[in-house]
Write a structure and sequence with these properties.
alpha/beta; two-stranded antiparallel sheet; binds flavin mononucleotide; single chain; 190 residues; Rossmann fold; 7 strands; 5-stranded parallel β-sheet
Length: 190
């Protein structure tokens, strides 16, 4: 079974990555893991040049190959800090590059449909403010759910720690450990 891990954390001391690493370590007992680290990966934002190439059937082979591996993965894990009420732009740009017709999604005369094999997605995040998953101010989970509908990713599960920027180091530690425990619990049936 294959798991595709998108590490969209952006700081050496990332708390989100601390949580994700413990969970990925556990999942590596059951899954073959491919990690893509977005910090420094510099995927291009899709603009007129790339669209023109796509219209002419040109997609860089390394992106098409990666999208095929993503589409073939049984599980997806995304680690991304909460930035500007959502997630880092590098992750959106990565999604743009992986959102390839006839690889991650297809379409018929009426609508688009997903082509991904994935049945469950685990999205791991930490937030600076005290904003809960499901709050209208939290615009990352709804986006990932919407993309999951386009790509056919199955169930989306969010593990989050909040209020990180207004907590003492001890509290932060506790929140990280709580999120790891929740994540490990989810891993039992993931
Ligand atoms: C560029 C940037 C933007 C951020 N935007 C928000 C935000 O909109 N809302 C919020 O609650 N926290 C925001 N934060 C705080 C982070 O969500 C918080 O510190 C988080 O724990 C960082 O995760 P990390 O330790 O994995 O890097 C932002 C932090 C950075 C660096």
């Amino acid at each position: 079974m294959k798991l595709f891990y998108i590490d969209s954390t952006m700081r050496e001391e990332s708390r989100t990555r601390l949580i994700a690493t413990a969970i990925i370590d556990k999942l590596s007992e059951r899954y073959e893991i491919e990690t893509i680290r977005l910090d420094g990966a510099d995927f291009p934002a899709v603009g007129s040049r790339i669209l023109h190439d796509r219209d002419n059937g040109i997609v860089p082979e390394r992106y098409a190959d990666m999208a095929r591996r993503l589409a073939a993965a049984d599980r997806l894990v995304i680690a991304a800090p909460f930035w500007d009420m959502s997630f880092p732009a590098a992750l959106k740009v990565f999604f743009e590059n992986m959102s390839l017709y006839n690889i991650t999604f297809g379409s018929n005369e009426k609508e688009c449909y997903g082509l991904c094999r994935c049945e469950k997605v685990l999205y791991i995040t930490t937030r600076g403010m005290n904003i809960r998953t499901g709050d209208a101010l939290e615009q990352a989970t709804p986006y990932i759910k919407a993309l999951g509908r386009l790509w056919g990713l199955g169930e989306i599960i969010t593990v989050a720690a909040e209020n990180m920027d207004y907590s003492t180091p001890e509290e932060i530690n506790e929140k990280v450990n709580d999120a790891i425990s929740k994540g490990l619990e989810i891993c039992r049936d993931f």
